[in-house]
Known about the structure:
One of its GO terms (molecular function) is carnitine transmembrane transporter activity. This is Glycine betaine/proline transport system substrate-binding protein. Residues 1-22 form the signal peptide. It is found in: Cell membrane. This protein is an alpha/beta fold. 48% of the residues lie in helices and 21% in strands. The protein has helices at 3-24, 36-53, 64-72, 89-92, 124-129, 150-161, 173-185, 200-203, 230-233, 235-243, 248-261, 264-274, 276-287; strands spanning 27-32, 56-61, 78-84, 99-107, 110-116, 135-136, 139-144, 167-170, 192-196, 206-208, 221-227. The strands form three sheets. The protein has a five-stranded mixed sheet with strand order 2-1-3-11-4. Helix 6 (150-161) links the parallel strand 7 and strand 8 (167-170). Helix 2 crosses helix 12 and helix 10 packs across helix 13 (276-287). The radius of gyration is 23 Å and the shape is globular.
Amino acid sequence: MNKMSSSVLMVGLLAAVTGVQADDHKSLVIGTNNWAENIAVANMWKIILEEEHGYDIELSDVSKSVLYSGLANEDIDLSMEIWLPTTDASFLEPHKDEIDVHDVWYEGTGLGLVVPSYVDIDTIPEIGENADAYEYQGRPTILGIDSGSAIAGSTDDAIDVYELPFNQINSSGPAMMAALDDAYQREEPIVVTLWSPHWAFAEYDLKYLEDPKGVYGESDDIHWMSRKDFGDDDPWLTSVLNDWHMDDDSLGGLMAEIEQTGDPVEGAQTWIDENRDLIDEWLAAGDEE
């Protein structure tokens, strides 16, 4: 075989190998929303899957309604967070036949109105009796996150059910936390909407206000979810994510690392480097497929 033929053959072989690699390359869209734990775990999985398993991951930050319709329409492949059986049930219901809900990765959430522990009240009715102490921009206010979130809707219900003379101001999670931090540093009363898991409970001394009428519902578990038949398309990743579990220590540590660095990528990478044994346990489930 002459040199020209050898060169042509080598180019052909390289092209074939490259073609196989391209076919094996998995591109996924992970739908996210602006909850602290959602940002944390989405960036964690993006790093693990891209750096260690050759995936190409796009994180798509969307509203709750767009997230569920995107999964149903297969514009989004998966999302790391759905709270069931209560909080996110209304978002899932219109699309329940087009979305696959997978295993639980965090058990025992919390959700409700939260105040600093130095505030001398313990129940939701009591904030109504002390409304003047919680003025923000001239009127009694509950500071919340985006208006399309489940917790925002529950808070509107709480204002009605408890007949609270309050207004809910909806903004982003970071903006709400900035207001909480400012009030906390000055030891002033403030009431915000919060949930567990959240890094705020490690950073500040906070308490949930008792909800005697059960407006915020019972404790939920957090599952991951995907477009229909994702499990058949990617059984390895489905097995890995079904074996993924986090508790307050592991998830709280991940969120705290991100909060301290101020960068979800840098913080998630640091946490990954320090928790290899745990991550390897999750990944081992896929190797058993």
